[in-house]
Amino acid sequence: MGAETGKPVTSLPESEEEIEQEGAAGEGAESRSARPDRAGLLIAGAALAACAGLVLYGVLDTGKDDSTPERRVPTAAVTYEVTGTGTADITYQARSESGNAVTVKAAALPWRKTVPVPLGREPIVNVVLGASGGQARCTLTIRGQYIQGATANGRFGRATCTGTLPPTDTAAGDDQT
Q1: pLDDT per position as a tens digit, 125-159
Q2: Distances in Å between the alpha carbon of 157 and those of 10, 101, 152, 162?
Q3: What is the DSSP string of 91-134?
Q4: DSSP SS3 for 98
Q5: Which range among 30-44, 114-128, 158-172 has the greatest average pLDDT?
Q6: Beta 101-108 vs 87-93: how paired, if at all?
Q7: Residue 174 contacts residue 76 (beta carbons within 8 Å)
Q8: What is the DSSP letter of 5?
Q9: Do 6 and 12 touch, CB atoms closer than 8 A?
């Protein structure tokens, strides 16, 4: 340490050889620290490319798979009606291309429902009374015209009303619901 400043004293090079050696060592150290690591650049570039790809996929995805247009099926208005007192289990055909029926458990009577039924399907209403019995009458109306009626009596009594709708290819002027 220097006596006057209290700072460490570095020795100065005394010969030209020492100056050249220090200069060569200094240039090598500077060039290594100034030059970025190639492996790090490759990893960063790959990560950036992956992120850019994911962003572009999200932006450019048109979503065509999710937006399939709904197929319009010609239908006819069908009214199902069940009169009586108490409750009954009611099963009826509504708008369903698969043909699945809708069931209402312990429906309070009187009950009435107007639904679109696809042409070519059979409109049907089925009534089942409970253990307490009673009496219930079902009726089926297509486009306001009475088609059929039936009566269920007694314990677990049953009644079914059905009708026929024209197939889809012969119904040019039918309802489009």
Answers
A1: 999 999 888 999 999 999 999 999 999 999 999 99
A2: 113, 20, 5, 17
A3: EEE-S-TT--EEEEEEEESSEEEEEEEETTSPPEEEEEE-TT--
A4: coil
A5: 114-128
A6: antiparallel
A7: yes
A8: T
A9: no
With H, G, I as helix, E, B as strand and everything else as coil, classify residue 67: coil
What distance in Å separates the CA atoms of residue 112 and residue 130, rounded to the nearest whole number?
A: 19
Q: pTM value?
A: 0.55
Tokens of 149: 């009626």
C-alpha distance from residue 60 to each of 31, 48, 54, 64 (Å): 43, 18, 10, 11
In terms of DSSP H, where are the helices of the chain? 16-34, 38-60
| CA-to-CA separations, 67 to 63, 70, 77, in angstroms, rounded | 7, 9, 28
Least confident of 15-19, 120-124, 154-158: 15-19
Q: Where do the H-state alpha helices sit in 35-161?
A: 38-60
> And the tokens for 49?
């490319």
Tokens of 62: 């048109």
The dihedral region occupied by 97, where left means phi > 0, alpha psi between -120 and 50, and beta the remainder, is: alpha
What DSSP string runs through 143-158? Answer: TTEEEEEEEEESTT-E
For residue 83, pLDDT over 90 is answered with yes
Structure tokens at 138: 């079902």
The one-letter amino acid code at 21 reads: Q
